[in-house]
């Protein structure tokens, strides 16, 4: 304790003559549970016109421990339309004394390619790789926008276990410029000042405590005060547009696609060969989609406005590859040739997709798909995937909003939502246990919808060794080996996978004297939840699903039941669960069902959820005791 006081006194003394990044100047409330603290952040957007702006950004993070090191990395992707004109960094020790500095010319600079075949993007990046905690990094950068269709979002909290001491956001613009903004999650109105022909909007935030990660919580973007800003009229890549409405945004995307749907003669002939004899729109969609999958592959191409504009259909026809925009445009073009009306749709692909506000149009998206309205339903086509079923959006693009781009503009629409019946996992296990407790089991699993995606990837994107490696750590057994793996796939709007496994698990059952202790539920077990003294955020179940497990275990002869687990049935607002046990002669039979619906619950009900998971976890681990006769 005395040593800590001495250190603090030394830090305070040194802080008087050093930079203001001494750790003693961080309030205790911001240090609690934090891996990093944002000491300051200053973001300034200077708008010159509808097609030109400057971004100035300066920030300093104090890294408190090894877990905070990810915040110390600096990276900036820039292009000809978004030029990085200035960049510099400084490193400070715990006292706030500067140790090192770096200029733009000394930072690492490399082509930003990733999976891109062609790209004019480059990555400027740097890391001081300092390991003496705590320490502070400070970076300053300036970018010039040669074309505008979106502005950065102000979200002071940059991650979990991260607190904010000071953050500001300023937009400076001509007085007659029509800036749109939206305040989210409690963000306050800006301070507005005007001087001559210049207007300035200023937002500030200070002393924001750590957001700790909680299970089943909303995404970070829904938890922290946020300001979204966007242009009305804009110009990007030589194309003019307006983002005040979704309709106008769709018209801008439509203009980027105009004239790019012309197919070469040989592809037109191929389209007719594949579809002319087919009688329904659905049959034509499937035929052309599978043709696309078999004859093209995805490669990202990011050149200039190429991040928004698709390459022409004839480019894909000739090269046999394209990015999401090019392949979706190609698919729409082939469907058009077959007499099937289809449209491109921009969307966010992947997890952690942003919340799309109906009343605030902006570029929330990173992906494009093809969309076909039909008499029965809308068919969504993921044109970058060479194995996915036609019409299946799944976890990658399902259950979110997309901008459908039609002849008359843009329309914000919903992609498919999958029910518990759609996301089914039905598993049947036939197993046996010998007198030494060794288990041999054949597991047959039928999965559909989102629940089949892992198996789909194992079949289509992994080799045998990778599948075995995954399965040998995925099943809920203490020690086991997967002896056999087989998969069978059924394509469809709701695709299905059948998985067959042969598994051995030594010493699965415990043998003590004359008794045999067996946990009949072999694989599918719920875990307990951490019981928090206080739950901060809503409880969010992102997906609906249904699990059905049927287990039959043959035991060695000469044993009788000493203790049989009780059947359990649970049903409440959070879902339903049941498990039942029977013993017939030397066979244990178990039936387990579990269903959960996509839903949101108030934080105040978390203790009830903990009780629900505790009860399921306990029932899942129930043990049967058999005693040897004689």
* Widest sheet, order of strands: 5-4-9-2-1-10-13-12
Helix content: 10-25%
Which structural category fits the helices and strands? alpha+beta
Shape: globular
Task: Report the strand count.
Answer: 38
| End-to-end Cα distance | 66 Å
Largest sheet: 8 strands, mixed
- Poorly predicted regions: 1-8, 10-18
**What proportion strand?**
35-45%
Provide the residue-averaged pLDDT.
Answer: 92
What gyration radius follows from the Cα positions, in whole Å? 29 Å
The total count of helices amounts to 11
Note down, in words, how this protein is organized:
This protein is α+β, with helices and mostly antiparallel strands. Helices cover 18% and strands 40% of the residues. It is built from eleven helices and 38 strands. The chain has an eight-stranded mixed beta sheet with strand order 5-4-9-2-1-10-13-12. Strands 27-28-26-25-32-36-35-34 form an eight-stranded mixed beta sheet, with helices on one face. It has a five-stranded antiparallel beta sheet with strand order 22-21-20-23-24. A hairpin with a 2-residue loop joins strand 35 and strand 36 (587-596). Helix 5 (281-295) packs across helix 7 and helix 6 (313-319) packs across helix 7 (324-337). It is globular. The N and C termini lie far apart (66 Å). The model is unreliable at 1-8 and 10-18 (pLDDT under 50).
